């Protein structure tokens, strides 16, 4: 069983709170839930929608075909009605969003007490919301018969009087990729986060700002991305664990400072959340177009760590690895995510793996010049060669160190001759699409250093590249590092993420 529910309306009508409210209750009841957001660069009006997919089995993506449409405006039905299944249902009309919450809970056959409890947690306008929700619940009829799920794995609600955020130790968790980045940074001992707001990196700024007093960290918004990166270098060389965050356009501005971090040996972590470019592009939509700037931005020759999570759990683990490697080896680290990973919510039933890291305490004179043993700028050729060789040797040791982590993962039928290769947020759709098919899938998490052991798994396979860009940038990287060229490609570059049912059909076509 798998259900897909679309919540649509104008910006300001409240589709987000409806989606998240239902998602949390479903997770608490033992279901696996995934939802993604689609919104325009508008504060009011336009058309925004979320798609929530849930099942009694793990689910990581959405489908195009819909079981339910919650239409907060007429435009939602016009745009998405064609994707409704024959047996599907539309809830529409001129009502407040909490009226629809009541109707939806009744349609799903869920107890009204569950909704009442969530509205009490919201606190804001509880009396008004509960009246509308009860009206919607009473006027609806049960429509779907949800399956029984394994209650031992559900997110257990706390006892009366306890913090509503508490759950049992073994409970599933539900959080976004942005929340995962924040969780991982805190677990890594972050001291300072500098950022300038830019979608879709901004949610991490909000997450860390809300926790700065409890976690004893400094969160500071500066005037632009150049100032952010420069302040980041200054803080990192004084021993503070520092991270800076932005999207592609802001990362462009950080390029010169990234290069300075490379020669100075500054252990600075960069969070790069991709969105559609070039230029302003489609500012609130998704892409995987920035892999090359993460690898090559900054002038001159210097190494940097580049890691790419595919979901919220990996966001925790890879930002932790980024801190660990940058602190231990004095190099800049880049965690490259995207809008789909950052703003989607995932059900997590595994404990994250955290590696403790020390603090970079190599105090001395730092600058952007080649320098001698005293830290003074030098043009001596022997010293220049020596410095370059030291950086190269440091990188070789770092490459060896990364072998303790998973640089890639293998899914599906591991002995299959058919192999999908992917990175980042395409993970969810790939995993759901290959289920039950004669296909294995390889996810590359470590972009730099590249996990060369993956070459043996790729050789002799019928390879299919899946990426959210128009050029296949991971494919170019694999060819550069292994000599293997992936000719079969499934590329999507309309600003939207892959959907499970669409990708499954496309993979079938390519395999035929």
Secondary-structure blueprint:
Elements: E1 2-11, H1 15-28, E2 32-38, E3 45-55, E4 66-71, H2 74-80, E5 84-91, H3 97-107, H4 112-122, H5 126-139, E6 173-176, H6 177-187, E7 192-195, H7 202-215, E8 218-221, H8 225-236, E9 242-246, H9 248-253, H10 255-264, E10 269-274, H11 291-296, E11 305-307, H12 312-329, E12 333-338, H13 339-343, E13 345-348, H14 381-401, E14 408-412, E15 418-422, H15 427-433, E16 440-444, E17 446-448, H16 454-458, E18 462-467, H17 473-482, E19 488-491, H18 500-511
Parallel strand pairs: 1-4, 4-5, 7-8, 7-9, 9-10, 10-12, 11-12, 15-16, 15-18, 18-19
Antiparallel strand pairs: 1-3, 2-3, 2-13, 6-13, 11-17, 14-16
Helix pairs in contact: 1-3, 3-5, 4-5, 6-7, 6-12, 8-10, 15-18
Quick recap of the structure?
This protein has 512 residues and is α/β, with parallel strands linked by helices.
Please give a structural write-up:
This protein has helices at 15-28, 74-80, 97-107, 112-122, 126-139, 177-187, 202-215, 225-236, 248-253, 255-264, 291-296, 312-329, 339-343, 381-401, 427-433, 454-458, 473-482, 500-511; strands at 2-11, 32-38, 45-55, 66-71, 84-91, 173-176, 192-195, 218-221, 242-246, 269-274, 305-307, 333-338, 345-348, 408-412, 418-422, 440-444, 446-448, 462-467, 488-491. By secondary structure, the chain is of the alpha/beta class. The strands form 3 sheets. It has a 7-stranded mixed sheet with strand order 5-4-1-3-2-13-6, with helices on both faces. The protein has a 7-stranded mixed sheet with strand order 8-7-9-10-12-11-17, with helices on both faces.
């Amino acid at each position: 069983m798998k259900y897909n529910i679309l919540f649509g309306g104008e910006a300001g009508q409240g589709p987000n709170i409806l989606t998240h409210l239902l998602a949390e209750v479903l997770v608490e009841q033992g279901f696996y839930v995934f939802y993604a957001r689609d919104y325009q660069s508008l504060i009011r009006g336009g058309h925004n929608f979320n798609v929530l997919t849930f099942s009694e089995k793990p689910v990581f993506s959405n489908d195009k075909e819909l079981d339910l449409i919650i239409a907060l405006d007429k435009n939602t039905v016009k745009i998405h009605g064609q994707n409704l299944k024959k047996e599907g249902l539309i809830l529409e009309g001129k009502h407040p969003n909490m009226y629809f919450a009541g109707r939806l809970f009744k349609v799903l056959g869920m107890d009204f007490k569950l909704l009442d409890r969530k509205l009490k947690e919201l606190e804001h306008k509880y009396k008004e919301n509960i009246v509308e929700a009860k009206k919607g619940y009473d006027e609806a009829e049960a429509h779907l018969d949800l399956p029984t799920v394994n209650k031992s794995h559900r997110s257990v609600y706390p006892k009366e009087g306890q913090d509503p955020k508490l759950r049992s130790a073994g409970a599933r968790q539900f959080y976004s990729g942005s929340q995962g980045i924040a969780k991982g940074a805190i677990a890594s001992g972050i001291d300072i986060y500098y950022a300038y707001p830019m979608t879709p990196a901004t949610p991490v700024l909000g997450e860390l700002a809300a926790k700065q007093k409890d976690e004893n960290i400094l969160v500071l918004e500066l005037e632009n991305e150049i100032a952010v990166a420069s302040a980041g270098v200054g803080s990192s060389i004084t021993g503070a664990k520092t991270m800076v965050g932005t999207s592609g356009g802001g990362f462009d501005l950080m390029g010169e400072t990234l290069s300075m971090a490379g020669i100075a040996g500054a252990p600075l972590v960069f969070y790069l959340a991709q969105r559609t470019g070039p230029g302003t592009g489609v500012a609130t939509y998704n892409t995987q177009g920035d892999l090359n700037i993460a690898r090559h931005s900054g002038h001159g020759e210097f190494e940097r760590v580049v890691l790419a999570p595919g979901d919220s759990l990996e966001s925790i683990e890879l930002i932790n690895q980024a801190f660990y490697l940058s602190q231990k080896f004095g190099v800049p680290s880049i965690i490259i995510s995207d809008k789909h990973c950052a703003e989607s919510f995932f059900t997590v039933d595994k404990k994250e793996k955290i590696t403790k890291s020390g603090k970079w305490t190599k105090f001395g004179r730092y600058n952007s010049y080649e320098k001698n043993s005293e830290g003074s700028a030098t043009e001596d050729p022997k010293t220049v060669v020596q410095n370059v060789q030291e950086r190269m040797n440091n990188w070789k040791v770092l490459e060896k160190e990364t072998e303790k982590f998973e640089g890639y993962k293998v899914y599906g039928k591991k002995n299959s001759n058919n192999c999908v290769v992917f990175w980042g947020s395409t993970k969810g759709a790939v995993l759901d699409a290959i289920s039950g098919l004669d296909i294995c899938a390889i996810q590359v998490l470590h972009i730099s250093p590249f996990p060369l052991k993956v070459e043996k798994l790729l050789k002799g396979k019928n390879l299919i590249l899946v990426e959210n860009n128009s050029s296949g940038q991971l494919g170019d990287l694999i060819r550069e590092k292994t000599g293997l060229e992936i000719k079969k490609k499934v590329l999507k570059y309309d600003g939207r993420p892959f959907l499970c049912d669409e990708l499954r059909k496309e993979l079938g076509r390519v395999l035929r």
